[in-house]
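Workshop exercise sheet. Pairs work together: one partner reads the sequence aloud, the other fills in the structure field after running the prediction. Swap roles for the next sheet.
Pair: D.N. / O.F.
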Amino acid sequence: FHTAVREVVAPFIYDAIAGKISTSDALDKAAKAADAEMKKLGY
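Structure field:
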């Protein structure tokens, strides 16, 4: 797993664990952030 992708996904996972957002929202937001980061990295 690319470190940069892990870094953009982590906040959503932590928010879901803390109960700040639903797991569904966390996954949706993390996927969008990961996709954007992968494009930025040239994938």
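Discussion prompt: The chain has two helices and no strands. What would you look at next?
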